[in-house]
Amino acid sequence: MRYSSLSSGSEGNALVIEAGSPSRGQPFRLMVDCGLALSEVVSRLEQRELLPSDIDLIFVTHEHKDHIGGVARLAKAHGIPVMATRGTFAAVGLAFWKDVQCLQVVPGVPIQIESVELTPLAVPHDAAEPACLRVRDGHHSMACVTDLGRVTDYLRASLQGLDAIFLEFNHDREMLMTGPYPPALRERVGGGWGHINNEQAAAFLLELLHPDFQVVTAAHLSQKNNTVGLVDGVLSGLSLGEASYQIASQAEGSPWTVLA
Length: 260
Ligand SMILES: [Zn+2]
Ligand SMILES: [Zn+2]
Description:
By secondary structure, the protein is of the alpha/beta class.
């Protein structure tokens, strides 16, 4: 299994995960969210030696623009099916999905595609029916967990035993509280239905660690209320054992991360 973020943050998100044994000559390629313009997706895939037609499925976590903005155009242009919860599909209206093959999923219910198991998991976030995603093949498991206002016991229980996690480190609490956001937005972002801050993410990460855990990619950093330096400071201060960390950015995403 390997994964690479094309871009991560409130300006647009897209993550590519390759999973499964290459029995058909190539792995199963999943894109999680697509909040980028089609031209941007194509060029960023190209940098990773992929074509849009290489993507087998797009999973959409929720209907916010930074996650869904480019989905319909990509799906239509290349005939890629889109998977999401009923609430996510409904939130943007039927017309948005015209000519798109839509696969509805229920949070908590795993979907098996060849040797790959996809499990959407409900997260608390201010969207209709948001879900993060756990991906498991015969060898590894990882999860994409962004856009959540708090860590729930359900997530704690559902995400044990991962090899890797793509995890939101949205904001620094202090920066959010003293930064440029008006009070209402500050409350939304920092509240239980917004985004988790660096400390919450770090604490959650520690709960997920086990001897075989390999790598965490910090994701969805706020451009106004966080810095790479702050996230790096938090992560470098943790006892991660053998595990490593990296930080995905809006401009670059993250390089291919290959699970051993
Ligand atoms: Zn987002
Ligand atoms: Zn969101």
